[in-house]
Amino acid sequence: MLAQATVNGILLGGLYGLATVGFSMVWGVMGVINLAHTAFITLGAYVTYVLFERYGVDPLLSMPLAMASMFVLGYGIQRLILNHVIRTSLLLSLVVTFGIELVLTDATVLIFTSDVRSVNASYASTSVAVFGTLVPVVRLLAAGLSLALGVGFFVFLRRASLGQAILATALDREMSNLMGINPQQVFALTAGAGAALAGAAGSLSSMLFPVSPTMGVSFLGAVFVITVLGGIGSVEGCIVAGFLYGLVQAWAAYWLGTSFQEIVAFAMFLGVLVVRPQGLFGRAFFGEHA
Questions:
Q1: Which of helix, strand or coil describes residue 251?
Q2: Which H or E run includes 133?
Q3: Dihedral sign, CA of 224, 226, 229, 233?
Q4: Residue 112 to residue 69: CA distance in whole angstroms
Q5: pTM for this one?
Q6: Domain extents in the chain
Q7: What is the mean pLDDT of residues 168-178?
Q8: Nearest-5° angle of CA 37, CA 42, CA 43?
Q9: Is 202 in contact with 62 (CB distance < 8 Å)?
Q10: 209 exposure class (CB count in 10 Å sphere: 0-12, 13-18, 19+)
Q11: pLDDT tens profile 16-44
């Protein structure tokens, strides 16, 4: 049973890590805690649900469309709204992003109602045995694709010129502007990429959890813990911390009961803040903007 809980926790942790990457990057590059991030997860799940329910599109095949849709939405919101408040106080950005989250959630309720939906792919109940432990195929696919997307985004930031521009803007906004980088454009692209990754996480989550207008909110606690644990703005930190978070939750649920898994996770969150505030892979400059 412990082995089964460990496997399930690790696989779920991969999805948590993917759901956090965009949130962490937006926080690290712009210094904005984007509370609308969970709405992108929800909408990504609904894109997959609609394509599966109405057109029979496999959830894995619908994920690119969910990512593209959320990129456009995230880019537009950043360009039209958040870029105008980014230089104000952190409190104002929190209020604005919280308001956007409420609008998106209410719009989802109006369109789809509050009914709980599900995406049941043909392989949803299939498992494979690994050393006597059953590994659900859906969780394995979700963890594998989450890891692949996370690593792909990490490579993009380090190798692509646009990725270098994002990192340069996070390092020194004013200097990057002097070097010909348009911070406003970088902010919008970063927000779009973060929303796209959240959409991918929502698309994969639709195969694991019930789809509802508030499903993204259940990720909020995990997203904060993983961001702090991995380090604000650190993609590799999100990936590693996501797996660690899922593992800790699984072990806490196994040894103490499911009612204690959130308590243990947030105790870890507080411990990291006290011992290593920058997180496992955090850099000093991320999130520090005048």
A1: helix
A2: strand 133-136
A3: negative
A4: 17
A5: 0.92
A6: 2-217
A7: 84
A8: 95
A9: no
A10: middle
A11: 999 999 999 999 888 889 999 999 999 99
